[in-house]
Amino acid sequence: MNFSKKISYKNIACLFSCAIFFILTSCEEDLTKRNGSQSKNFPSQIINNANIIQRDSGFITMKAKAPIIEKYELIDSPYTVARKGIDIEFFDKKKPKVPGTIKAKYAKFYDYKKFYEAKGDVRIKTNEGQRFAMQSIYWDQRKNRIYTKDTVYVTMEDGSTLIGANGMTAKDDFSEYTFYNNSGDFSSKRISENKK
Description:
Blueprint: H1 2-37, E1 45-56, E2 59-72, E3 79-82, E4 86-92, E5 95-104, E6 106-110, E7 115-125, E8 131-140, E9 145-148, E10 152-155, E11 161-164, E12 168-171, E13 177-179, E14 182-185, H2 188-195
Antiparallel strand pairs: 1-2, 2-3, 2-4, 3-6, 4-5, 5-7, 6-7, 7-8, 8-9, 8-10, 9-12, 10-11, 11-14, 12-13
């Protein structure tokens, strides 16, 4: 009788050890599966009070300020986002002392596509003095094109105005642009200059 008690305690201890082993390995497998399918869409870098300067051969081409910039680099299509707004100055070598500006409440940049979007009270001022206002704008850097389907309000340096009710497309240096379903108030001097 004493011998059978020892065997049953040994069997119970062995069975209990096996059960713990299988529980731990099954938990470990579940954690591995769960972590593998877990989203990697979280910022890999966060910059608070960002102040970024971009140069090309020593020449400053852009200055950007934002309360917070987040970089998402651990996903298939990495991007950078400024959720609390951005203020950009861009410089042209022809007029290095007169920067153009872009301000928006939200901005996003897709790294591989070289594609930018800005939303929320977008304000652009060119180094020629033209001022553009719209709710959103997109820039395809590879094609050097800027476009929007929103209503665009433009004020020229001489005070004349133009409204593109169905958006616009433009070269990214604003040397050429096309407005859709437009109306405006141009000075007669400017119209006569364009006819010559």
